[in-house]
Specification:
This is Mycothiol-dependent maleylpyruvate isomerase metal-binding domain-containing protein. This protein has helices at 9-23, 41-60, 80-95, 116-137, 146-164, 181-188, and strands at residues 105-106, 113-114. It has 197 residues and is mostly helical. A hairpin with a 6-residue loop joins strand 1 (105-106) and strand 2 (113-114).
């Protein structure tokens, strides 16, 4: 895959984070617990991949994910890297057809139509946060750069509240004075920045 297959920098950065997180998982770590309390690392990958395919499907009208991303089975249809790469390729290729100034892009998050920059940000937010879930679940450092976290925080503050009602995000945690950009984003999304398995 061309790892820069999208003109959308935020999506490319989020996909890079997810790619690195998946590549960093050791063979025996796919069953480890994650910050998503009901899911292991494999299930988080399935969910993240399914969401990327979901965004692509809304844009292109093509097929959606093979299984419900919110009920991941824990059984992959291919190698983890293949599952991740195929989903990210579908997403990047779909977003490559969307112009920067489009005001109503079909997306799988309420209200199902968003301006292009916000829609691609929502897609990137999903990939980047699940990259963090996978990385910290397997004892690796956060893949969230300050720049990416700042951009995604702006997106999150504009789209996440309606999603909490569906259980897509936990209630926000109280911010702390010493939070860096990544920690502030994670707390807003209901995640503890100091989470460990």
């Amino acid at each position: 895959m061309n790892e820069n297959a999208t003109m959308w920098t935020v999506l490319a950065e989020a996909h890079r984070a997810l790619r690195d997180a998946v590549r960093g998982v050791a063979a025996g770590d796919w069953d480890r617990p994650t910050p998503c309390a009901e899911w292991n690392v494999t299930q988080v990958l399935q969910h993240a991949a399914g969401d990327q395919i979901g965004f692509a499907s809304f844009i292109t009208g093509g097929p959606g994910p093979a299984e419900n991303p919110f009920a991941p089975s824990g059984r992959l249809a291919a190698s983890p890297e293949t599952v991740a790469e195929e989903a990210m390729r579908a997403s990047a290729d779909a977003w490559a057809t969307v112009g920067e100034d489009e005001q109503e892009v079909s997306v799988p998050v309420p209200p199902n139509k968003l301006p292009a920059r916000l829609g691609v940000g929502a897609c990137a937010l999903d990939a980047a946060v699940h990259a963090w879930d996978i990385a910290v679940a397997t004892g690796r450092p956060s893949p969230l750069t300050p720049e990416l976290a700042r951009e995604l925080t702006d997106v999150a503050q504009r789209i996440v509240e309606p999603l909490r009602a569906f259980g897509a995000y936990a209630p926000a945690l109280e911010a702390r004075d010493d939070d860096d950009d990544a920690a502030a984003l994670l707390r807003y999304l209901g995640r503890r920045p100091d989470w460990t398995a």
